[in-house]
């Protein structure tokens, strides 16, 4: 198996991390493809500069030392620790912003075995634990030793055939169920069959050439893991590990209830969106929060270390997760274990791949197109009113790798037009695109350099030009910043915008009523050209009114349903500008303010278009705009 730091084809070229994989595989008798596949699924071969993952794993092999990682961590407030939004986002039944407070300091005395594999690797190799945490080569050696030990413990010889290592790979996941262990192993062998190549965060080119391998799945029998039948309430594809852990639907004192609404989707309303969140908490804290009837809810949580899924709310019901009731009523929310400001507490490949499988499944079930008009980040969800816009959440943030995610979804961001296309799809190269951010470790603190899916937007075609202003997120005279939670001058991979101008290495887009410039050089493009539908103001109009929710007009409401206000956001959008259209939809309001869902109603009215207004989406009334091809 060749792993090279240069062009594939000459083993003598292997250096650095690539050589470490080859040496460790030979020393411990593990097929190199197996070692590379396991490492790719846990870290994509990155070392993360010795920082632990959210589940306490270190280095390219994700050797776990949760006691050390937790002892050094700061308590966090969980899913809603950043932002002040009302997660339900319904002004007819507003909720106070959840504030569970910081979690207790972690107890490091009783860490389960699957979260302390680094100590076992130290014992097997004689290497110092500190070296295993911070040295990539040592870490790879430790991972190889663990795989070899698992193979021995299962009673299997150290075969040179990758097909014979399925059981050892399943054991490496440290999963508590056979389903979860086998999902991890299946994904490792999928990587081996597909192949992979990338430059890691240490600057090493590592390559796993594709190799057709049919693993012997019987080798996992000796693990003795429980193989309980899947709960029939789970709505996941069969190819992932998925459990049912329900969010409570309970009536509370004073006539309130939590933490979601019962519905009959898609019979009652179409599901148009899937919203991607990060948890801002560990797995254990996340599960504790979603089981609190006085908290909020989402449909699925995904675990970082192995991609295991817990489903909490049925797809037919409405979770309280996006901060905008219109979006909540028409979406499914996915929470991914991780932290926006700490990209090296990383989103693992296992979690990306599981999430992509789940999203593909949901997209088929609900007929949701696989594009960034329908697959939203929480940070792309608009505030329903002016007052709510500044407090909307900003996860999963600029470090979520949207391009890789859509590659896994089978819907990569590709050019659909020539160099004069009327739209652009943002698509920087994540690994080499490293704009500076700050506030990761407190106000004003610089974030460590890291790949990013977002481009920065300026008022003129120059790096030193001011950033464009977002008067919604920065009311008054506030300026946009390079803060990691500031979405005011940011466009993310997959988002589409109408082109306003091109000038050399710079492209301008229409954005929040302004001409916003981003660097887009021919030798390192950060966008691809596209065609599609746009809206512009009608002849004679001065501005285009934009809305934070697509609610019906007053005349659409029956007498027993209070009319919900339809008030434009305060953004000034000149009528001669163009904005990319995501979908055309009837306006809808889901009236759900009582525990008993018998009286819940859906009100429908005039048509709206969803547009890409800025970093966040918005809606315009079809009667206010002209629809045209870009």
Describe the model.
This protein is 20% helix and 19% strand. The protein is an alpha+beta fold and 630 residues long. Among the domains are: 163 residues, Lysozyme, CATH 1.10.530; 159 residues, Lysozyme-like, CATH 3.40.80.10; 76 residues, no CATH class. The protein has a six-stranded mixed sheet with strand order 5-11-10-13-9-14, sandwiched between helices. The two termini are 48 Å apart.
List the helices and strands and how they pair.
Layout lengths: L15 H13 L3 H12 L13 E2 L4 E2 L1 H6 L45 H9 L3 H6 L1 H18 L12 H7 L5 H17 L1 E4 L5 E4 L33 E3 L5 E2 L5 E2 L1 E2 L11 E6 L4 H8 L9 E3 L6 E3 L6 E2 L5 H5 L1 E6 L12 H18 L8 E3 L24 H7 L14 E4 L27 E3 L33 E3 L3 E8 L2 E6 L2 E6 L7 E4 L2 E5 L41 E13 L9 E12 L4 E5 L3 E5 L1
Parallel strand pairs: 5-11, 9-13, 9-14, 10-13
Antiparallel strand pairs: 1-2, 3-4, 6-7, 8-12, 10-11, 15-18, 15-21, 16-17, 18-19, 19-20, 22-23, 22-26, 23-24, 24-25
Which stretches of 5+ consecutive residues score pLDDT under 50? 1-14, 100-109
How much helicity do the residues have? Answer: 10-25%
What percent strand?
15-25%
> Which CATH architecture of the domain at 11-65 and 116-223 would you pick?
Orthogonal Bundle
Q: Report strand order across the widest sheet.
A: 5-11-10-13-9-14
Mean pLDDT: 92
């Amino acid at each position: 198996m060749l792993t090279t730091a240069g062009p594939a084809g000459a083993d003598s070229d292997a250096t650095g991390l690539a050589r470490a994989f080859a040496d460790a595989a030979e020393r411990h008798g593990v097929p190199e493809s197996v070692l590379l596949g396991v490492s790719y699924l846990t870290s994509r071969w990155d070392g993360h500069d010795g920082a632990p993952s959210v589940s306490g794993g270190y280095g390219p092999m994700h050797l776990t030392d949760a006691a050390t990682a937790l002892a050094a961590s700061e308590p966090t407030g969980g899913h809603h620790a950043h932002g002040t939004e009302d997660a339900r986002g319904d002004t007819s039944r507003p909720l106070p912003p959840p504030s569970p407070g910081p979690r207790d300091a972690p107890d490091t005395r009783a860490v389960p075995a699957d979260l302390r594999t680094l100590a076992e690797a130290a014992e097997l190799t004689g290497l110092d634990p500190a070296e295993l945490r911070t040295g990539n080569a040592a870490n790879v050696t430790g991972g190889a030793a663990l795989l070899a030990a698992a193979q021995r413990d299962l009673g299997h010889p150290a075969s040179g055939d990758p097909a014979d290592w399925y059981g050892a790979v399943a054991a490496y996941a440290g999963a508590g169920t056979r389903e979860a262990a086998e999902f991890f192993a299946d994904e490792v062998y999928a990587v081996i069959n597909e192949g992979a190549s990338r430059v890691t965060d240490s600057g090493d080119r590592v390559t796993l050439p594709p190799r057709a391998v049919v693993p012997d799945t019987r080798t996992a029998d000796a693990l003795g893991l429980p193989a309980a039948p899947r709960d029939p309430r789970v709505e996941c594809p069969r190819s992932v590990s998925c459990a049912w852990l329900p969010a409570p639907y309970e009536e509370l004192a004073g006539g309130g209830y939590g933490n979601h609404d019962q519905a009959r989707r898609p019979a009652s309303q179409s599901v148009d969106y899937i919203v991607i969140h990060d948890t801002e908490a560990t797995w254990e804290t996340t599960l504790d929060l979603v089981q609190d009837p006085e908290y909020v809810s989402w449909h699925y949580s995904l675990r970082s270390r192995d991609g295991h899924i817990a489903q909490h709310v049925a797809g037919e019901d409405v979770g309280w997760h996006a901060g905008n009731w219109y979006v909540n009523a028409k979406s499914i929310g996915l929470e991914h274990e991780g932290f926006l400001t700490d990209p090296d507490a990383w989103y693992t490949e296992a979690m990306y791949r599981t999430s992509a499988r789940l999203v593909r499944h949901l997209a088929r079930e609900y007929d949701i197109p696989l594009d960034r008009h329908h697959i939203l980040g929480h940070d792309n969800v608009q505030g329903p009113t002016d007052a709510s816009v500044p407090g909307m959440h900003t996860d999963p943030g600029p470090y979520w790798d949207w391009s890789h995610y859509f590659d896994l979804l089978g819907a990569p961001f590709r050019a659909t037009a020539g160099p004069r296309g009327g739209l652009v799809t943002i698509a920087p190269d994540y690994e080499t695109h490293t704009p500076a951010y700050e506030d990761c470790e407190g106000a004003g603190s610089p974030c460590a350099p890291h790949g990013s899916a977002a481009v920065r937007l300026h008022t003129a075609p120059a790096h030193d030009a001011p950033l464009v202003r977002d008067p919604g997120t920065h009311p008054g005279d506030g300026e946009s910043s390079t803060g990691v939670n500031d979405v005011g001058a940011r466009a993310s991979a997959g988002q589409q915008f109408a082109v306003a101008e091109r000038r050399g290495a710079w492209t301008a887009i229409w954005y929040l009523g302004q001409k916003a410039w981003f660097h887009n050089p021919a030798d390192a493009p950060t966008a691809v050209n596209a065609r599609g539908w746009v809206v512009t103001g009608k002849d004679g109009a001065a501005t285009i009114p934009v809305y934070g929710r697509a609610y019906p007009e007053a005349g659409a409401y029956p007498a027993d349903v209070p009319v919900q206000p339809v008030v434009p956001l305060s953004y000034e959008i000149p009528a001669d500008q163009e904005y990319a259209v995501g979908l055309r939809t009837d306006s809808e309001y889901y009236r759900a303010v009582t525990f008993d869902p018998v009286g819940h109603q859906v009100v429908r009215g005039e048509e709206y278009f969803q547009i890409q207004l800025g970093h966040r989406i918005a809606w315009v009334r079809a009667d206010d705009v002209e629809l045209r091809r870009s």
